[in-house]
Design a protein that fits this description.
Blueprint lengths: L7 E5 L4 H13 L4 E4 L7 H6 L8 E4 L2 E4 L1 H11 L11 H27 L4 H21 L15 H6 L2 H12 L7 H12 L1 H6 L3 H11 L4
Parallel strand pairs: 1-2
Antiparallel strand pairs: 1-3, 3-4
Bound molecules: glutathione.
The site of glutathione has 11 residues, from α3.
Protein name: glutathione transferase
EC number: 2.5.1.18
Pfam families: GST_N
């Protein structure tokens, strides 16, 4: 059990890729916490009070103070519990690179992904998502040494690996339900395969089968 881990509560939703990131960071660092799953169709008082701006999960409440936005939360977790499984690199340039790609993942990759889901499998949007995956592939070649391991962090998961890990279940789920044709990105696929096999991911990520049912109900034929 990591230190400074008293009074940690997570407001989450199981299919939420953003919640998965925070669960994964907590699991990697061995931080005990209370998970309070949220009904996003009927938002709780604690969610509305702790995230009045966006009213979204995840919210990490640490010692009574809410921390918002998944990438910011993962960053915060790494700063408060730096000893176990450090996520951000020490080098300032590499840290800047991680922040750059974090921004790209949340703005571009996620945007094309969600538009693919909402378009019910549009080929042009699939292609746009694939182009963004290819850019991730390029970033992996630039920042991660293949000899050292499958992740941006080499053999261990780093900040960017945590942000991308939810795609390990979301890509196969959407591929199977909505016919997503994933781009040929061998390093990115290796990263996702290694992420899904990671012991912490077994705790933090749901089964693809469970997610497929969710995708059918929420995205198919819309
Ligand atoms: N940028 C936010 C996105 C969070 C987000 O979109 N959460 C969704 C679940 S995946 C949510 O709470 N949606 C509820 C709503 O939109 O009302 C983050 O990284 O935490």
């Amino acid at each position: 059990m990591a230190s400074r881990d008293q009074e940690v509560t997570l407001l989450s939703a199981w299919p939420s890729p953003f919640s998965m990131r925070v669960k994964l960071a907590l699991a990697l660092k061995g931080i005990e916490h209370e998970d309070l799953p949220q009904d996003l169709g009927n938002k709780s008082k604690i969610l509305l009070e702790s995230n009045p701006v966006h009213k979204k999960v995840p919210v990490l409440i640490h010692k009574g103070k809410p921390i918002l936005e998944s990438a910011i939360i993962v960053h915060y977790i790494d700063e408060v519990w730096p000893e176990t499984s450090p996520l951000l690199p020490q080098d300032a340039f590499l840290r800047a690179q991680h922040r750059f790609w974090s921004d790209f993942i949340d703005k571009k990759l996620f945007d094309s992904w969600i538009r693919f889901l909402r378009s019910n499998g549009d080929a042009a949007v699939n292609e746009e998502f694939n182009q963004n995956c290819l850019l991730i592939e390029g970033a992996l070649a630039e920042l991660g040494s293949e000899e050292e391991g499958p992740f941006f962090g080499g053999a261990s998961m780093s900040f960017l690996d945590v942000l991308l890990a939810p795609y390990a279940v979301w890509i196969p789920g959407v591929e199977q339900v909505m016919g997503l044709k994933p781009a040929k990105c061998p390093r990115f696929h290796k990263l996702l395969a290694a992420a899904s096999e990671h012991p912490s991911a077994k705790v933090a990520l749901p089964q693809v089968e469970r997610l497929k049912k969710f995708i059918r109900v929420h995205f198919e034929s819309k």
